Amino acid sequence: MDYRAALDWLYSTQMFGIKLGLENARRLVAALDAFPEGKCVIHVAGTNGKGSVCAMAESIARTAGFRTGLFTSPHLVRYNERIQISGQEASDDEIAEGLSRLCELTSAWDPHPTFFELTTALGLWLFKKHDCEVIVLETGMGGRLDATNVVTPSVSVLTKIDLDHCRWLGDTLEKIAGEKAGIIKPGIPAVTFPQSTGVLDVFQKTTTLLTIAPAPHAAGPVGLPGEHQKWNAALAILALEKAGLAIPAAAISKGLRDVSWPGRFQEICPGMFLDGAHNPAAAATLVETWKTDGPAARPTLLIGMLSDKDILATLTALAPLAAAWIAVTPRSSRSLPADELATEIKKVSVAPVSVAESTAPSLLHGPRPLLVCGSLFLVGEVLAWFQNQPALRPSAQ
After folding, report:
1. Does residue 122 surpass a pLDDT of 90?
2. Residue 158 is inside which H or E element, if any?
């Protein structure tokens, strides 16, 4: 199969839905002989901040001279974003080669592997093919039964625990923490930062090898805005240390300064910001980040959300920030229609609310400052739109 045909096949496997469990993932990785034996593996789970911590850890390790593999999800614009080798997205040809092998391998499997199981196996296969020395894996959802949990890591990393994916992971912080703590392995160090007492109790009952980062990183600038990113930076540094990597201070400083993670308080052009905050805790963090790192004026929020999120609580958290709202429908089968979202906004905010049929007019002619938020699907849609608009590229640099 060529690249397009391979992706078409992969996306057709979404019909198998989400299946939490490790049997198929183990079978896939074993069939590809892709277990990362003898390599440094940093495995990251949590509700918010996973991607940022992964990006920071990879950036530092790569700056220190290691050949790195980075596995994250979801992608924003191109599928290849999910699998990066030494800072470069996996090539179309390699994606096609790996997916073709997986298609042939699994044609008669019952149950058939899911989209995420296949993607996990593909990532590990490519990391082994490139002989990556440091592999940073972000869980997709949860941890205990997440497909990435087939590896034995050098360190398990637990980021901020909050309420999200409650249908799958539980309706309390402690239940969710229990699922996330499932990535911890016997005899393997684990790291986190200060959490609620209940969450830390769960982690500490799971392992005696837990280290808690004592303070946010303060030894130099971090390339991602927001005070919370300084805590994420401290966690990334601690993870590398506990994984047994000797990283020079200069590499830590440069890696954190140069780290890039699109769609996280990203100013894509003057006065226009993108942030993928899509649950109440992330929304509250976004409000605080705007206060410390954003313009003085309150923004208009261009917002779209998925119907399976905690809509009202997320909007309540964002409401103090909004000068006005523009509701849109992200391109996803799970999206909440814009008119229904507008109705929910009016329950928590007195700021003006309008409904837009598409995002483009608001991006071109909307008020400034403008903050795009509520869904990574919407953020990805906006990034893709900008990348196809040559006239806007100079102002987006």
Report:
1. yes
2. strand 155-158
